[in-house]
Amino acid sequence: SPFLTSEAEVTKPLTIAHRGASYDAPEHTFASYDLAIKQQADVIEIDLQLTKDGEVVAFHDETLERTTDGAGLVRHKTLAELKTLDAGSWFNKKYPERAKAAYSHEKIRTLDEILARYAGRAKLNIEMKVPEKNKGMEQQVALSLQRHGMLTAENFSNRTVVVESFTPASLKKLKTLAPGLPLNQSIWKGDVRKLAQPELTTIKTYADSVSINYQDATAENVRQLKQAGLIVRSYTIDNERDMERLSTYGISGVYTNRPNVHVMITSDG
Ligand code: G3P
Ligand code: CA
User: Fold this and answer.
1) How confident is the model at residue 228 (pLDDT cuts 50, 70, 90)?
2) Residue 186 Cβ < 6 Å to ligand 1
3) Where does the GP-PDE domain start and stop, copy by copy (predicted)?
4) Which end of the chain is more exposed for a tag (fewer CB within 10 A), N or C?
């Protein structure tokens, strides 16, 4: 199809390690990202929150309770305060069958620490979380990518780093700060059906890909999105049957907590 762009031409959907290999290791820790690379994921997915002192950290929730021994909002804590927290023991308690003693030493990581450790070893997919509350996050993300030499034409064309958000305004802001950086419009579960041609045309003005919930994905809506010139990815798929189903739709990437399962499924072609 003349509509397809490079990532869409891949015969095998990219394996996007959702929060790292987060089925087997505590999400958004070095343990989880290291394991994603070991399991041969193509892309590591990283959610970002902003600290009280304006640092960007890898963290999914707005609050600390679920995945650390701390409490309260991430944005109400300084980086120094967050660095005292244990980001792994919750996993050992919740999933004793997958627990490892070493996980109890895992820390919250900054985007800078992550770029220093993983740039060049895997592609990175970075999500700016709740940008309407994490004010100025776009600037911090652009500066961090710049510091690590990631804002290059080669990286842009290889989609070495993609930044995603559910919030269009945040992507548009980042587009002005880092022209050329590939951007992904994340689509809330249930919202794919709201996307007709005018909405797709609008998305195309600032983003080159979309991510849709796998329970919304059909052969028909994936085809429509691709015909609008968008790369299509789907989140978050952990079981083999859905991975097989989605692969017949021509999607370009699968977000999964179990990169080893997706790599195994796609390796035979
Ligand atoms: O593209 C959406 C993907 O990042 C999954 O979303 O809610 O797990 O951060 P979430
Ligand atoms: Ca995410």
Assistant:
1) very high
2) yes
3) 13-266
4) C
| 232 touches 209 (CB < 8 A) | yes
Q: Given its phi and psi angles, is residue 19 left (phi above 0), alpha (psi -120 to 50 degrees) or beta?
A: left
Respond yes or no: is residue 60 known to be catalytic.
Answer: yes
Q: What angle do CA 253, 254, 258 make, to 5 degrees?
A: 140
Q: Does the beta carbon of 255 sit less than 6 angstroms from any atom of ligand 1?
A: yes
CATH number belonging to domain 6-267: 3.20.20.190
pLDDT, tens digit (0-9, with 9 covering 90-100), for 144-197: 999 999 999 999 999 999 999 999 999 999 999 999 999 999 999 999 999 999
**Considering only CA atoms, which residue is closest to atom 3 of ligand 1?**
235
Other Cβ atoms within 10 Å of 10 Cβ, number: 16
- Are the C-beta atoms of 150 and 115 separated by less than 8 Å? yes
- The pTM (predicted TM-score) of the whole model is 0.95
Amino acid residing at 64: L
The model's pLDDT over 56-91, given as tens digits with 9 standing for 90+, comes to: 999 999 999 999 999 999 999 999 999 999 999 999
Average pLDDT over residues 243-259: 95
Nearest CA to ligand 1 atom 5: 235
Ligand 1 centroid to Cα of residue 251, in Å, is: 16
